[in-house]
């Protein structure tokens, strides 16, 4: 197996982790948690979403959070931006990177953003262009790449087509999402064997959910094929509001422990990450699925 020397971990817990939680986390607690994550050496933290509060009420304080955090000069602070209004708020909040999102399956896209894919593409094209004019980095999430809760398998041709569209728009990174946690290592290899001859591995990140306990296994073949950017969530928080049964993301602590044991540098402090995960677990009031967090709490 070919192991990279360094992997970039993209922490999405404050956004993707909290968006599906029924328990309200106070604004000051969100800020404290993000500040704790900033002190771990993470190169990327997705701090909030500027989707309308009607759809994501758990993040209705996004602008206050973005303005309230203490920033590390070595960390990119990102936010989910659905449209021009969201982009304006992201710019006001001092966000470094605007993240747009699109589903690979038509049904999930309709439920997620209430628009057909082709109409969503046109909206995202405008948002990405205006983000670049504002000197923001851009990132695109392509959801349901490895399976859809409504359509099941998504044709690889659709994934290729939408990946080409998003990268041709000029996004700096394309994150391919296993929204329902259905992927397996062979499927990961098949998707990457199709995409990597067309796109550089440096343009692609992978976003695995751990619904069926396969997220770590899916990272292994991706590493071997040259992918060095992975989305993870503190404590394993997360889930998609429009993917019934979707469990949390790959836990940041579990991924980093595995990578470091493999001799792969992540530039992060695992003990500080565990402390941050334990802290937010108490605020949410329920046990989080991170295996390393559970081991940490028994010490």
Write structural notes for this entry.
- By secondary structure, the chain is α/β, with parallel strands linked by helices.
- It has a single domain (8-297), classed as TIM Barrel.
- It has helices at residues 13-17, 27-38, 62-68, 84-92, 106-113, 117-133, 156-168, 185-195, 215-224, 252-261, 270-284, 291-297; strands spanning 8-11, 44-49, 76-80, 97-103, 137-143, 173-178, 204-208, 229-232.
- α2 (27-38) crosses α3 (62-68), α8 (185-195) runs parallel beside α9 and α10 packs antiparallel against α11 (270-284).
- The longest helix has 17 residues, at 117-133.
- The radius of gyration is 17 Å and the shape is globular.
- This is Hydroxymethylglutaryl-CoA lyase.
- It holds the Pfam family HMGL-like.
- Keywords: Lyase, Metal-binding.
Strand order of the largest sheet: 1-2-3-4-5-6-7-8
| Strand content bin | 5-15%
Helical segment count: 12
Number of E-state strands: 8
Alpha-beta content class: alpha/beta
What separation lies between the terminal Cα atoms? 33 Å
CATH architecture tag: Alpha-Beta Barrel
Shape: globular
Write down the Rg.
Answer: 17 Å
Mean pLDDT: 94
How many domains? The number is 1
Given this structure, which CATH class is correct? Alpha Beta
Q: H/E order of the elements?
A: EHHEHEHEHHEHEHEHEHHH
Identify the CATH homologous superfamily.
Answer: Aldolase class I
**Annotated CATH topology:** TIM Barrel
Largest sheet: 8 strands, parallel, barrel
State the helical fraction. Answer: 40-55%
Low-confidence runs (pLDDT<50, min 5 residues)? none
Pfam family, one: HMGL-like
Domain Pyruvate carboxyltransferase: 7-274
GO molecular function, one term: hydroxymethylglutaryl-CoA lyase activity
Protein name: Hydroxymethylglutaryl-CoA lyase
């Amino acid at each position: 197996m070919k192991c990279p020397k360094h992997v970039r971990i993209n922490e999405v817990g404050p956004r993707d982790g909290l968006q599906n939680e029924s328990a309200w986390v106070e604004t000051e607690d969100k800020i404290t948690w993000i500040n704790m994550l900033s002190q771990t050496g993470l190169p990327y933290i997705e701090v909030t979403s500027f989707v309308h509060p009607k759809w994501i009420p758990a993040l209705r304080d996004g602008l206050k959070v973005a303005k309230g955090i203490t920033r590390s000069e070595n960390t990119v602070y990102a936010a989910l931006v659905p449209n021009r209004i969201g982009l304006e708020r992201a710019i006001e909040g001092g966000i470094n990177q605007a993240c747009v999102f699109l589903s690979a399956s038509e049904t999930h896209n309709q439920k997620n953003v209430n628009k057909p894919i082709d109409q969503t593409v046109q909206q995202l094209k405008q948002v990405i262009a205006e983000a670049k004019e504002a000197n923001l980095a851009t990132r695109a999430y392509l959801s349901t790449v490895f399976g859809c809760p409504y359509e099941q398998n998504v044709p690889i041709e659709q994934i290729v087509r939408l990946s080409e569209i998003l990268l041709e728009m000029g996004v700096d990174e394309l994150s391919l999402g296993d929204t329902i946690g259905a992927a397996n290592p062979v499927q990961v290899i098949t998707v990457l064997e199709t995409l990597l001859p067309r796109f550089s591995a440096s343009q692609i990140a992978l976003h695995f959910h751990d619904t069926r306990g396969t997220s770590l296994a899916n990272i292994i073949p991706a590493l071997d094929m040259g992918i060095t950017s992975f989305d993870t969530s503190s404590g394993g928080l997360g889930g998609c509001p429009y993917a019934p049964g979707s469990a949390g993301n790959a836990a940041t602590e579990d991924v980093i422990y595995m990578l470091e044991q493999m001799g792969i540098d992540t530039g992060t402090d695992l003990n500080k990450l565990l402390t941050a995960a334990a802290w937010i677990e108490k605020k949410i009031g329920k046990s989080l699925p991170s295996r390393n967090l559970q081991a940490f709490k028994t010490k």
